[in-house]
Specification:
Its cofactor is pyridoxal 5'-phosphate. Homodimer. The chain has two domains: 12-45 and 304-397, Aspartate Aminotransferase, domain 1; 65-299, 3-Layer(aba) Sandwich (Aspartate Aminotransferase, domain 2), CATH 3.40.640.10. The protein contains 15 helices and 13 strands. It has helices spanning 12-22, 47-59, 72-83, 88-91, 102-117, 131-139, 159-166, 191-204, 226-234, 265-282, 288-299, 301-331, 340-343, 355-365, 385-397; strands spanning 29-30, 95-100, 123-127, 144-148, 150-151, 156-157, 174-178, 207-212, 238-243, 256-261, 348-350, 367-368, 374-376. The strands form four sheets. It has a seven-stranded mixed sheet, sandwiched between helices. Strands 1-12 form a two-stranded parallel ribbon. A hairpin with a 4-residue loop joins β5 and β6 (156-157). The protein is globular, with a radius of gyration of 21 Å. The N and C termini lie far apart (51 Å). 46% of the residues are buried. Bound molecules: pyridoxal-5'-phosphate and (2S)-2-hydroxy-3-(4-hydroxyphenyl)propanoic acid. Pyridoxal-5'-phosphate binds next to α5.
């Protein structure tokens, strides 16, 4: 069957992790794959997750199937997290949520669902974006188009170009947006800009699809939902794919959600029926464990408070490491302005390092950075920050 078939290309970011693991250099630093690490360089299980697992071990009576869209209490809690308590979307029962295998599963189910009812639509992705966006929406049958996003010269947003392009997107097309913590750039629109983008969506009739993979890792749980709130206020249909891989540290439990927002509760019921039909033909119903952990934490005020603390600590460490990197480079006499690294949000930063510098850092210093210069700021620790700053300063002097 495979003799005459060319092998599929490997994922370049995961390939970088492999190369890092095999590197014997004792000073090696992994700033590649988007996984949170604490100040000891490990990806911990959150204490609130351990506590929830202990509770589940005591109360779980059966491993029978979950409903197609997951535990109903999970859906309610996710809507509270995504939209905020008291949101009009919740009080008017305008959203359908399905527990999905990771954010990736949520994106794919959303894409499959839209494809069934908008077979002619294209999907617009930011330039640049997370590589899997193109893959997921292509796999679901969409032609892909790009809207301008990151400006390498100003290290900011190409906001006017972005808005001009979104004003030309045909009604019915899908526009995929990073709700916060843009991967790979770390550059997000501000509140005013989100409101302008949402107004264009309402005016032009394209379908917003928010990828919400990092809620709580930018500024905080509430502040990070600015984009969601802007679209919610317009009353239009939109989709939100949540991931709980990063903010709950549940990477290998494959835990996420897809939420479909409709203008009315009646339309939501129709959307929910088709959402379930789509899940049914993809994986029937979701894997339970990760979703039950999230549900347990969000349903128990003490556990939720503990989770908020642990998430705030992750977010705070990332912000502190951004500061340490910028200060460390300045202290070493690097005269290039790196202050934009402090303005970026979330785990990722477009460092502005050229591809030659990225290659040199890897070959000579065993510091692993994704091509294009994206660094995972969470890979920096108090033990490696001096080495990383020394190495970058040395690279830039060459
Ligand atoms: N969306 C973006 C922008 C991401 O960076 C990621 C993961 O890195 C995901 C979605 C998918 O997350 P998950 O691992 O939950 O599938
Ligand atoms: O670092 C990133 O941008 C992601 C991380 O199944 C990732 O590509 C890796 C594997 C995976 C999902 C996300």
């Amino acid at each position: 069957m495979w003799k005459s078939v060319a092998a599929a290309p490997a994922d370049s970011i995961l390939g970088l992790t492999e190369a890092y693991k095999n590197d014997p250099n004792p000073h090696k630093v992994n700033l590649g794959v988007g996984v949170y690490m604490d100040n000891t360089g490990t990806t911990p299980i959150l204490q609130c997750v351990k506590d929830a697992e202990r509770i589940l071990l005591g109360v779980e009576q059966s491993k029978s199937y979950l409903p197609i869209s997951g535990d109903p209490q999970f859906g309610r809690q996710i809507q509270r997290l995504v939209f905020g308590e008291g949101s009009d979307i919740i009080t008017n029962d305008r959203a359908a949520t399905a527990h999905s295998p990771g954010g990736t599963g949520g994106l794919r189910i959303g894409a499959e669902l839209i494809k069934r009812f908008r077979p002619e639509a294209a999907t617009w992705i930011s330039s640049p974006t997370w590589a899997n966006h193109r893959g997921i929406f292509t796999a679901a049958g969409f032609p892909i188009k790009e809207y301008p996003y990151y400006d390498a010269a100003s290290k900011g947003l190409r906001f006017e170009d972005l808005l001009a392009t979104l004003n030309q997107v045909p009604a019915g097309d899908v526009v995929l947006l990073h709700a916060c913590c843009h991967n790979p750039s770390g550059v997000d629109p501000d509140e005013d800009q989100w409101q302008k983008i949402a107004a264009v969506a309402a005016d032009r009739g394209w379908l917003p699809f928010l990828d919400f993979a990092y809620q709580g890792l930018g500024v905080g749980i509430e502040a990070d939902r600015t984009a969601v709130t802007a679209f919610a206020a317009t009353g239009v249909d939109f989709f939100v794919a949540s991931s709980f891989s990063k903010n709950f540290g549940l990477y290998n439990e494959r835990t996420g959600a897809i939420t479909v927002v409709s203008p009315t509760a009646e339309e939501k019921n129709i959307a929910l029926s088709h959402l379930k039909a789509t899940v049914r033909v993809c994986y029937s119903n979701p894997p339970a464990h990760g979703g039950l952990i999230v549900k347990t934490i969000l349903s128990e005020p003490t556990l939720e408070a503990h989770w908020r603390q642990e998430l705030a600590a992750m977010c705070g460490r990332i912000v502190a490491m951004r500061q340490a990197l910028v200060d460390g480079l300045a202290a070493r006499g690097v005269n290039q302005d790196f202050s934009y690294i402090k303005r970026q949000k979330g785990m990722f930063s477009f460092s502005g390092l050229a591809d030659e510098t990225v290659a040199w850092l890897r070959e000579c210093k065993a510091i692993y950075v994704v091509g294009g210069g994206r660094i995972n700021v969470a890979g920096l620790t108090s033990a490696n920050i001096d080495y990383v700053c020394d190495s970058i300063a040395e690279a830039l002097r060459q």
